[in-house]
Amino acid sequence: MENGGSRQATMAELQEVQITEEKPLLPGQTPEVAKTHSVETPYGSVTFTVYGTPKPKRPAILTYHDVGLNYKSCFQPLFQFGDMQEIIQNFVRVHVDAPGMEEGAPVFPLGYQYPSLDQLADMIPCILQYLNFSTIIGVGVGAGAYILSRYALTHPDTVEGLVLINIDPNAKGWMDWAAHKLTGLTSSIPEMILGHLFSQEELSGNSELIQKYRNIITHAPNLENIELYWNSYNNRRDLNLERGGAVTLKCPVMLVVGDQAPHEDAVVECNSKLDPTQTSFLKMADSGGQPQLTQPGKLTEAFKYFLQGMGYMASSCMTRLSRSRTASLTSAASIDGNRSRSRTLSQSSESGTLPSGPPGHTMEVSC
Question: Region Disordered: start and end of each range (predicted)?
C-alpha cells in the first residue's frame, strides 16, 4: 500500500476517463456517468470503473469478474436490469477489471509474470485507498468470487457482505490437474474457458447467448492475457475454509450457483464450510453456468433481500418485485427438502423482509 511520496507517484500515474453508458433508461432516469481509473499497485496496474457517488454510512458495491470476461461482459445484464435500479441508486459501485482484461488492454509482453489470485486480492486495498472507501459489499463470479473471498479473509473489517457466484474455494487436486492437462491436449484455451463458464448442456444447445460469448472469447484481442488469468485461476491455493475454525468468512454471505452448473458441487462444498447463521445458499434452476446473465431478475430479487437483511434496503424499497414476483423464488423452493420453509419464504417475500431462517440453519433456495 502506497503513502507519502509513493502515493503522489501513484496519483501522477492515474488515468481517468468519463464514459456515459448507453442503455435503455427508465422513466425519469438520467444516464449514469462512469469514471474509469487505472492505478499502480505492488503487483502492477489495475483498472476499475466507478458509477455513482459515495453514500453516507453505506459501503460501496465492488464487483470482480470471472476468467474470459471483463466487468461489462460479466455484470452488465445484471446491473442494467430494470429492478436493479432500486439498488444502484442507493450505492456507489466499483467494477474491477483484472489486469489486462479491460477493454483495449494491450497484450502483455512474452514472459510477463501475471499476478496470482492472492496478489490480485492484494490489489484491492490500493483501489479502496485511492477512492477513500472504507467498506465494501463484494459481488464476484468464479475467479472473481475467489479473489473477493481471499480479500475478505485478510481484510475482514472492510467487507460487510459477499455475493459469491460459482465459487470454488479449493485448489486443484492431482486428478483435476490430470484432467485439465488431458483436456488441454484436445481443446483450445477458449473452449476450456467456455467449459468453465457454461454447462455442457448449454454449450451443446449453442444458444444465442453461447454464440455471443464464444465469439467474444475466441476473437478476443487480448486472448494471451486471458490465458494468463486462466492459468492463475488454475494455480489458486486452497482457501482452507473451516466451519467454526480460525479461517472463515465472518461477514454475511450469499452463495449462488445454477442448477447443473459446472461448479455446483464446489459451491455446495463451500456452503458446508461456512457459518450457517451467516450464509444463504441460492441454487437457481434454469440459469445455467452464469445466473447473472441468464436470470438477472431472480438474482436482483435475491440481492435485494440480502441487502435488506443487512439493514440497507427498507421495506418501502421492496416495491414491484415483492408484489409481483413473490412466486418466482418460491414456486420450486426446497430448503433441505422441507416444503413448509418455502412457504415461510413466500410469506416473508410478501411482507418485504428477508427470511433469515432459524439460528444454525443455512437457507437453501432453488428458484
Answer: 330-367
The predicted-structure confidence for 108-156, as pLDDT tens digits, reads as follows 999 999 999 999 999 999 999 999 999 999 999 999 999 999 999 999 9
pTM, rounded to two decimals: 0.81
Strand partners, 45: 40
Q: Give dist(CA 224, CA 221) in Å, integer.
A: 8
What pLDDT does residue 172 have?
72
3-state secondary structure (DSSP) of residue 8: helix
Q: What's at 325, amino acid-wise?
A: R
Backbone angles phi, psi at 161, to 5 degrees: -170, 160
Cα–Cα distance between 122 and 133 in angstroms, integer? 16
C-alpha cell at 180: 485439465
Please measure the distance between the N-terminal and C-terminal CA atoms of the chain and give it in whole angstroms. 42
Continuous segment of H or E residues that includes residue 18: strand 15-20
Task: Identify the pLDDT of residue 244.
Answer: 85
SS3 137: strand
Cell of 355: 427470511
**Closest C-alpha to 68, from 161, 147, 144, 163:** 144
Question: Other CB atoms closer than 10 Å to residue 250's CB: what's the count?
Answer: 12
Sign of CA dihedral 303, 309, 310, 311: positive
Three-state DSSP state, 333: coil
Q: Is 170 helix (H, G, I), strand (E, B) or coil?
A: coil
Per the DSSP assignment, residues forming a β-bridge with 93 are: 51, 61
Domains and CATH numbers, the chain: 35-312 (3.40.50.1820)
CB–CB of 139/63 below 8 Å?
Answer: yes
Of 137, 160, 240, 228, give the one whose Cα is nearest residue 189: 228
